[in-house]
Design a protein that fits this description.
It is a single-pass type I membrane protein. By secondary structure, this protein is α/β, with parallel strands linked by helices. Among the domains are: about 140 residues, Alpha-Beta Horseshoe (Leucine-rich repeat, LRR (right-handed beta-alpha superhelix)), CATH 3.80.10.10; about 180 residues, Leucine-rich repeat, LRR (right-handed beta-alpha superhelix); about 120 residues, Phosphorylase Kinase, domain 1 (2-Layer Sandwich); about 230 residues, Orthogonal Bundle (Transferase(Phosphotransferase), domain 1), CATH 1.10.510.10. It contains 14 helices and 54 strands. Helix 5 packs parallel to helix 7, helix 9 packs antiparallel against helix 14 and helix 11 packs across helix 13. The protein is flat, with a radius of gyration of 37 Å.
Length: about 1000
Amino acid sequence: MELPSHATSTQISFKQLIWLFCFICMFSLSSFKSGSAAVVTTSFRNESDRIALLAIKSQIPNDPLGALTSWNDSLHHCDWQGITCSRRHPQRVTVLDLQSQKLEGTLSPYIGNLSFIRNITLTANNFHGEIPQEIGRLLRLRYLILPNNSFEGEIPSNITYCSDLREINLVDNNLSGRIFAGFSSLSKLLGLGLSKNNFSGKIPPSFGNLTSLTSLSLLDNNLEDIPDDLCNVQRLGFFQVGGNMLTGKIPSCLFNHSSIYYLAVSENKLEGNIPPNIGLTLPNLQQFLLADNKLSGRIPVSLSNATRLEIIDIGYNAFIGSVPRDLGKLQRLRWLGLRVNQIGTQQGGDDLNFITSLTNCSNLEVLDFSQNVLKGPMPTSISNLSTTIRFLLMESNSIYGSIPVGIGNLVKIQVISFAGNNLTGTIPISIGKLNQLRELYLGLNLLSGHIPSSLGNLTQLTTLSLSENNLSGSIPPSLGNCKNLAELNLAMNNLIGAIPIQVFSISSMTAEVGNLTSLLKLSVADNILSGHIPESLDKCLNLVQLSMKGNFFQGNIPKSLNTLRGLQILDISSNNLSGEIPKYLEQFPDLAYLNLSVNQLEGQVPRNGVFANASLFSVIGNQNLCGGIEELKLPPCIQNKIKKKTSSPLKVIIPIVGSLCLFLLLLFFLALYRRKVLNKNTSSSTLTNIPSYKRVSYLELLRATNGFSADNLIGVGSYGSVFKGVLEEINQAVAVKVLNLQREGASKSFLTECNALRHLRHRNLLKIITACSSVDFHGNDFRALVFEFMPNGSLEEWLHPRVNGHDSRNLSFIQRLDIAIDIASALDYLHHHCQPSVVHCDLKPSNVLLDDDMTARVADFGIAKLFSTTSYDSSQSQPSSDVIRGSVGYVAPEYGMGVKVSMQGDVYSYGILLLEMFTRKRPTDDMFVNGLSLHSYAEMALPNQVMDIVDSMMLLHDDNTKVVNTVEHSNNQANLQECLVSLITLGVLCSADVPAERKTMSEVVSELHHFKKHYQDVRKRSSSE
C-alpha cells in the first residue's frame, strides 16, 4: 500500500513540474512581448517630449546668450541645456530650468505635453503673452516659477488641475484681473508669489483654505482688502502685502500666528493699533514693516520680547506715547525707523531714555526718530551706540542740552541730523574724528562757540549745515580740506572776520587730476563778516547759489566773479558794498534772483539779462543809482556831453575811414568768390586734428556701404543718414554718417561735430575713426564722418522696441543703472573735464548708442556748443531764441524763452532721459496733457508711489528667486525700491523747471555711484545672511 501511495505522489509532482515549466515559458513570452511594447511606447513618449521642447524653442526668437544652442538633433534632448530627465522613467523630462537667460518670446502651448515635468523655472527672462492654458494638463507639476518676465492677461483657471503644486511664483509680470479664487483648491501649496503685477479687487477669502501655505507675497498691486479668512492659514510665515490700496484694519488673528517671521503691510491706508501683546504672540518675527499707513496708538512694550527682530519700520503713521525703554533686548536689531509720528509724552519728561537701552544692540545701523514730539536732554549714551551705526537722525523734535563729546566714537557713521531742536553748547571737536561722515545737519539750534577747525578732517563731507545758531568767531580755513563739499550753509550766526581764502579751494581739484568737484551752494548770510568779497570766489566755477547778505562786506563787487556764469541765485544785499554794478552780471544766463539792495552802489543800472525783468532783481536802498528799466523809476544818468567842432583832424580821419570801408568791401566780395574752396579747406583743417586711420575717399565709403544701399541704412537724423559698412583696409565694421548738404545747417553741423570730436577722449563718447570731405561722382560736395559701429543699436530701440515679435528688447534694472552712469560720466567729462568744455544740446535716447558690452556711448554732436578753455562763458553761446537747441520733450524750458545755451540745459535733458529710462514713458507720450508732464508725473509719485510708475519689465536680476519668499528676497525688494526712489528723485531734481534747482553732472555722477554701491552692498549682505 505504501508503494502505490508513493508512486501517486511522485506522479502528481511530475505533472506539477510540467505545468510550472509551461507557465514560466508563457510568462517569459508575455514578458518579452510586454517589454517590446514598453520599448515602443517609451520611444513614442521620448519623441513626444523632444517635439514639445522643439516647439517651445520655436516660440523663442531671441536667444542672446545661446541657451538653446544645444537643442538640436546632435544631442539627446536629456542632454540639452536646462533639461533634466527622470531616473525612474528614463529620458522623460522632469525639469525645465532656463532662468536668467534673457530669452524673449512666448511660452508655447506644447509645454502641456511634458506630462512628467515637475519643475518649470523661467525666472528673469522676457517671456510675454499669456500663460498657456495647457499648463493645467501637467498633473505632476510641483514648481511653477516664472518671475521677472512680461506675462500678461489672467492666470489660467485650469491651473487647479495641477493638484501637486507646491510653489507658484509669478512675481513681477504684467498679469491683471482679479486674483484667481481657485488657488484655494491647491491643498499642497506652500508658497504663492503674485507681487508686482496689476491685480485688483479683494484678496480672495478662499485663501483661508490654503492651510499648508507658508508664504504669501502680494506686494505692489491694486488690492483692496485683507480677509479675516487668512486666520485659518496657521503655518503662514511670510506675509507681504505692501504697496496696495488696502483699507480697514489688519486682521487681529494675523498677530496670533506664531509662525510669522516677516510681516509687511507698508504703503497702504490701514488703520488701527498694534496689539499690546504682539511680542509674545509673534516670537519669531524678524522684520516688522508697517510704514506709511494710518496706524495709531502706542508702540507695544512687548515688542522687546520678539528677540529675533532685525527691522522695525513704523514711520509715517500717527503713533503716540513713549518709545519702549527695553528695546535693547533686541540683540539683532539693525533698523529702528520711527520717523514722522507723534511719539513723545509732551509732559516735560525724558522721552529719550530708550536710547540707553539701544546701546546693547550691537548690530544697529539706522536709528531714525525724526519729526516727532520727543522732549528731553540729549542723552550722553548716544556715544555708546554700536560702532556699526551709519545713520543717526533725530531732527525736528524738542531735544535740549549739548552734543556729547563721545560722539566721536561712532566711527562708521555717515549721516548725522540733529537739526531743528534746542541744542546748546559748542560743536564737539571730536566730530572731526568721523572720517566717513558725509552729511552733518546741526542747523536751527542754539549752538554757540567757534566752528571747530577739526571739521576740516571730514574729507568725505558733502553737506555741512550750521545755519541759524549762535556760532561766533571766524570761519576756519581748514574747511578748505573738505574737497567734496557741495553745500555749505553758515547763515544766521554771529560769525566775524573775513572769509578765509582757503575755503574756496574746495571748488575744485587741479585740472591735471581730472576730477572736478564743486561747491554748489554757499550761504554765510546774516553774520558779522567783514572785509571784501574774496577774489578767490572765482575758483568756485560751479557755484549756483551764493548768499552773503546781512554782513559788513565792503569795497567793490569783484571783477573775478565774472567767472561764475552758472550762478542762479546771488544775494549780497545789506552790506557796505560800493562802486558800480558790474556789467558782466547781464551775461549770466541762468541768474534768476539777484539782490543788491541796501548797499552803497552807484552809477548806471544795466538793462539787459536779469536786469530786464524787475521781478528778478532788487537794487533798492542804494542812493546813487540811475538809469535802468522804467519800472525802477530811477533818475536818468547825466552824461557829460562835450560839443566838439569838426576839426581838421576829423577832416583827415573821414577819408581814411571811407577808404578802409572800401577795402573791407573788396575783401568781402573776394571771400564770397572763394567760399566753396574755403569751405573745403575749413573742413579739411578741422579734420586734421581728429586721430584717425588714413583718410578715406568717397569711393572707399561707397564700396564699404554697398553703394549706400537701403539694406545698409541704419538710421536717419536731422542732417543726414547713417549707413553700416566695412572698411576694407582695416576690416572693421563702421557707421558712416553722410551729411545731407542740401539741408540748411548741415555743413555747419559737420564742422561743429568735427570741432567737438577732435578734442574728446572718453570711454562713454562715440569714437570717431576718420572723416571724408570730398566730392561725389556728380561733382557735388560730399561730407561724411566715420564712427565705430555699435552692434546693440541705440537706447531708443531698447526702451521703445518695435512690437513685431523679433525686435522685442528689454533692459534689466542694473543695466539701466549702468547706462545712466555711463551717460552721466560722459556729460560730466564734457562739462568739466575737457578743454574746451562742451554742451551737447541734444541728449535723447536715440543719441545714446550701446556697444557689444552694453556700455553706453553718447553720440551726435551736430548742434553741440564749445566754451572757452578757462571758464564757462555764456557770452560765447548763442541765444536759444535763434534756434531752440535740442529735441521736443528733452529741451530745457528756458531755451524757449531766449535764455542762452548752458550746461544746465544738458542737465535738464539728462533728468528727462533718466526718468524715461526707469518709467519707459516718453516725455511726448499722449498721456502728458493738460499740464501733466513726465517731470510732474514722476514728482507726484515720490516717494510712496514710485513702484507704480517704474517699468516693471526692467526688474530683472541674476539671483534665483524662489517662490517661498525669504528675508533675503524681501531685503532685495526693499533695497530695489529704495534705489528706484533715489533715482526718480534725482531725475526730478535734474529736470526742474528752474535751472538753479538742478544739479551739476559731477554731483549726478557721484550720487549714481553711491546709489549703485549701496544697492550692491545691501544685496551682498542680504545674500550672506
